[in-house]
Specification:
By secondary structure, this protein is mostly helical. The chain is built from three helices and two strands; from the N terminus they run ααββα.
Protein backbone atom coordinates (compact mmCIF):
# COMPACT_ATOMS: atom_id res chain seq x y z
CA UNK A 1 0.00 0.00 0.00
CA UNK A 2 1.04 3.57 -0.65
CA UNK A 3 1.07 5.99 2.28
CA UNK A 4 -0.17 9.47 1.30
CA UNK A 5 -1.69 12.36 3.22
CA UNK A 6 -5.34 11.58 2.50
CA UNK A 7 -6.58 14.79 4.10
CA UNK A 8 -5.93 16.37 0.68
CA UNK A 9 -8.71 15.31 -1.75
CA UNK A 10 -6.41 14.96 -4.78
CA UNK A 11 -3.99 12.73 -2.85
CA UNK A 12 -6.90 10.68 -1.51
CA UNK A 13 -8.02 10.04 -5.11
CA UNK A 14 -4.46 9.25 -6.18
CA UNK A 15 -4.11 6.76 -3.31
CA UNK A 16 -7.28 4.96 -4.42
CA UNK A 17 -5.91 4.66 -7.97
CA UNK A 18 -2.45 3.49 -6.88
CA UNK A 19 -3.94 0.98 -4.44
CA UNK A 20 -6.25 -0.36 -7.16
CA UNK A 21 -3.41 -0.79 -9.67
CA UNK A 22 -1.19 -2.41 -7.04
CA UNK A 23 -3.72 -5.26 -6.68
CA UNK A 24 -2.86 -6.29 -10.27
CA UNK A 25 -6.58 -6.73 -10.91
CA UNK A 26 -8.15 -4.49 -13.52
CA UNK A 27 -11.59 -5.19 -12.00
CA UNK A 28 -10.45 -2.99 -9.09
CA UNK A 29 -9.25 -0.23 -11.44
CA UNK A 30 -12.22 -0.04 -13.83
CA UNK A 31 -14.69 1.60 -11.39
CA UNK A 32 -12.23 4.47 -10.89
CA UNK A 33 -12.06 5.34 -14.59
CA UNK A 34 -14.66 7.54 -16.28
CA UNK A 35 -16.76 6.20 -19.15
CA UNK A 36 -14.90 8.43 -21.62
CA UNK A 37 -11.45 7.47 -20.24
CA UNK A 38 -8.68 7.40 -22.83
CA UNK A 39 -5.15 6.09 -22.22
CA UNK A 40 -2.35 7.80 -24.14
CA UNK A 41 1.23 6.51 -24.11
CA UNK A 42 4.12 8.93 -24.20
CA UNK A 43 6.31 9.88 -25.89
CA UNK A 44 4.13 10.32 -28.95
CA UNK A 45 7.09 9.26 -31.08
CA UNK A 46 6.46 5.69 -29.84
CA UNK A 47 3.40 5.80 -32.13
CA UNK A 48 1.29 3.66 -29.78
CA UNK A 49 -2.49 3.80 -30.22
CA UNK A 50 -4.77 5.56 -27.75
CA UNK A 51 -6.81 3.10 -25.73
CA UNK A 52 -10.43 3.35 -24.62
CA UNK A 53 -11.44 2.26 -21.13
CA UNK A 54 -12.13 -1.27 -22.44
CA UNK A 55 -8.91 -1.37 -24.46
CA UNK A 56 -6.96 -0.27 -21.38
CA UNK A 57 -8.58 -3.04 -19.32
CA UNK A 58 -7.77 -5.69 -21.92
CA UNK A 59 -4.18 -4.58 -22.49
CA UNK A 60 -3.18 -4.06 -18.88
CA UNK A 61 -5.27 -6.98 -17.62
CA UNK A 62 -3.18 -9.27 -19.82
CA UNK A 63 0.06 -7.74 -18.60
CA UNK A 64 -1.00 -7.84 -14.95
CA UNK A 65 -2.03 -11.49 -15.18
CA UNK A 66 1.61 -12.38 -15.88
CA UNK A 67 2.92 -10.48 -12.84
CA UNK A 68 2.92 -11.51 -9.21
CA UNK A 69 4.08 -8.14 -7.84
CA UNK A 70 3.78 -4.50 -8.88
CA UNK A 71 5.77 -2.06 -6.79
CA UNK A 72 5.11 1.69 -6.82
CA UNK A 73 7.81 3.96 -5.42
CA UNK A 74 7.58 7.69 -5.04
Amino acid sequence: MVELDTSIPQLKALKRVLDAYSTLNMNNVQPLLSENYQYEAFPESADLPKLTKEGHRQTWGGIFSSLNKFEVRI
